[in-house]
Every structure is written in C-alpha cells, then in structure tokens.
C-alpha cells in the first residue's frame, strides 16, 4: 500500500477521478488538502469519505503554512502528492522538505499556455492539437519535467464548452492512470 495526498482549491473533478481510481487499488488517499474555505472539492471529499485538511494562507508567511503542510504529510506518512487544481505555488523549501514526488496536471500542451488560463488560451490559439500535460512539480510555474502529454485534434466549429469537456475528459482518464502507476512503483520499492 502507498499513501497519496491530493491538494486542490476548487471544483474537484480530478480529485473525484483520483479517488474512484485509488479505491480500486491497495493504495489510499490519506487526505485532501484544500486552501479555499467552502470550495466544492471539500463537499466531494465528504461524499467520498476522504478526510479533508483545510489550510489557510491568509495572514500567514508562506513557509509557516508549508511547514504545517509538511507536518501533515509526515504524520500521515504520505508517499506522493498530486496537485489537482491547487492554486498556490509551492516553494523550493517545500519541495526539498517533502521527500516524495509532487505531481501536477495542466490543461494545455506545455510549454504552451502555462498559468491559470491554459484552457482559454488553448481555445483562442490556432493550434491544430490541444491537450493536457502531467508533470513533476518544480519551483517554477508549470515548468517541471513532463511525465505524459495527451492530445486531440481540433475540430471545426468547436465551442469553448466542447474543448473544455474534451480536455477534462482526457484529464480524468489519464491523471488517475499516472498516479496509480506511481503509487504502484512506490509500493514495489521502485523509485517513482
Ligand atoms: C484542471 O483543469 C487542471 O488541469 C488544472 O486545474 C483544473 C482543476 O479542475 N490544474 P478540477 O478542480 O479538478 O475540476
């Protein structure tokens, strides 16, 4: 068994996909960490029976918050962190202090369209292929080493809503596969 923590700030559709996938394995989601009070992902965690760790950055030094997060991760012996719409940048201090891999998903084909408008900028581009990126987190904004990219060809007359749905469908298919396979590697003693 390997232990996962998911960090999220918003809707939580990727968290739900991860939770359903992990349930079918020997692995466990130790907790969902959320930095936004009242975020829908907290309701999803309650429905799925995953413990939630609410955390607030308001009025706190970033490193003080990150120290608390590391304490939670250590106490629950978390092996791997998956970011799923977590809207805070993690510092080099955190990435050094937590010894396991930290993975993120982004709704564009990086290095194109990093940042928070990945879908809108992909939609507005003339690119023939759109897609998603799953990567290791480093201290930059969506700059870490790529683990997997999946794409689909643009269709004529597609609306923003269509493109959004296709991107999320790819995310929900591939993020759980990558995370479960990394948990399997941790479990078998291989470096993920
Ligand atoms: C996803 O599009 C993900 O790629 C990005 O944030 C969004 C989170 O969506 N990092 P959700 O909260 O999982 O529905």
Structure notes:
The chain is an alpha/beta fold and 192 residues long. It is built from 6 helices and 7 strands. The protein has a 7-stranded mixed sheet. Helix 1 runs parallel beside helix 2 and helix 1 (13-23) runs parallel beside helix 6 (160-187). Residues 8, 10-15, 84-85, 105-107, 171 line the site of 5-O-phosphono-beta-D-ribofuranosylamine (GRF).
Cofactors, ions, other ligands:
5-O-phosphono-beta-D-ribofuranosylamine
Question: In total, how many domains does the architecture comprise?
Answer: 1
Uncertain runs are none
- The tally of beta strands, per DSSP, is 7
The CATH topology turns out to be: Rossmann fold
CATH architecture level-2 label: 3-Layer(aba) Sandwich
**Major β-sheet, in short?**
7 strands, mixed
What amount of the residues lies in strands?
15-25%
Termini, distance in Å? 14 Å
Q: Helices and strands: which structural class? A: alpha/beta
Q: Tell me the strand order in the biggest sheet.
A: 3-2-1-4-5-6-7
Specify the number of helices.
6
Whole-number radius of gyration? 16 Å
Q: Helix and strand string, N-terminal first?
A: EHEHEHEHEHEEH
Principal-axis shape equals globular
């Amino acid at each position: 068994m390997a232990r996962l923590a998911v960090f999220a700030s918003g809707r939580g559709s990727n968290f739900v996909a991860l939770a359903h996938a992990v349930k079918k394995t020997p692995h466990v989601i130790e907790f969902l960490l959320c930095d936004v009070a009242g975020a829908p992902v907290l309701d999803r965690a309650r429905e799925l029976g995953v413990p939630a760790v609410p955390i607030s950055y308001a009025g706190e030094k970033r490193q003080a918050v990150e120290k608390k997060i590391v304490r939670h991760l250590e106490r629950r012996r978390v092996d791997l962190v998956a970011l799923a719409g977590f809207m805070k940048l993690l510092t080099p201090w955190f990435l050094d202090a937590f010894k396991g891999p930290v993975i993120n998903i982004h709704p564009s084909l990086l290095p194109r369209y990093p940042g928070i408008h990945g879908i809108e900028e992909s939609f507005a581009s003339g690119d023939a292929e759109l897609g998603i990126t799953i990567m290791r987190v480093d201290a930059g904004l969506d700059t870490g080493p790529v683990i997997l990219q999946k794409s689909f060809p643009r269709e004529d007359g597609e609306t923003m809503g269509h493109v959004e749905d296709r991107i999320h469908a790819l995310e929900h298919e591939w993020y759980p596969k990558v995370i479960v396979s990394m948990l399997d590697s941790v479990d078998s003693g291989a470096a993920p």
